[in-house]
Amino acid sequence: MKARPLLRYSEDVRSLGAVACCLAVLLAPLAFEFSVEAMAARIMVAAFLCFVASIVTHNHMHAPMLRARALNVALNVALSLARGHSATGIVVPHNLNHHVHEGSREDWIAPLLAGRGPGVLRLVRYVAAASANMAVRRWAKTAPRLPRRWRASSLLEKAALWLLVLAVLLFAGWEGLVTILVLPWLAGLAMLVGVNLLQHEGVRDGSRDFVGPIVNWLLFNNGYHTIHHMFPRLHWSRLADKHREMARGRPRAHDEPSILRYLAKMMVSRDAR
Description:
This protein is an all-alpha fold. The protein is 61% helix and 1% strand. It has one domain (12-204).
């Protein structure tokens, strides 16, 4: 009898590779000496890879990568170490709040938190306000709770995170902890929150889609955001085809070919685009 593959979708070999690269770059200073310049470069690369790991985590929480539950829990732990935050920690604010209340006042990361003014100010304000709003509102009595099937994994993830922090602290001290883990983790999470503003600000019908091939290769088709909200359990590798199928050759008003070009325009804009 032929054994079933461990992965539900073969494309997730690249997802696992991205997480492995993230962990390798994060923990490299424990094995190698870095100059000040090399450490600064490593922090920037690690921050981006932590952001990518958060995208992989997002995809995994919607459509688990592995067939065996135990392996998915082990992967949750690895993802938590890569992004600096519990993998299942995104389920409540993202799956159970953002997808239910997309863009409305009940959405804990609603674009309205960005306020008004120059784009760069809106983006900075949004990252701070949305992060704080999520941290506070998830503990409200009326907030959804993490489903029971994820609670054991959540405990393991948090324990693994604290053990890693303690190990790095003992090995490298406070300064080492900050440069090795804290800065990349925080920057990666800030990018994750900030990209939500680019996808949702100024859009009433669906999301803004970034359809460039490079960004979607790097971020596992996260640019195809409208389709993701319509079919949240659709595997990331199928989003591009579904987007083209729904568009039927007619570009949507909020299709953007380049996320970097849009970000540059948004940063100097006076209000929501």
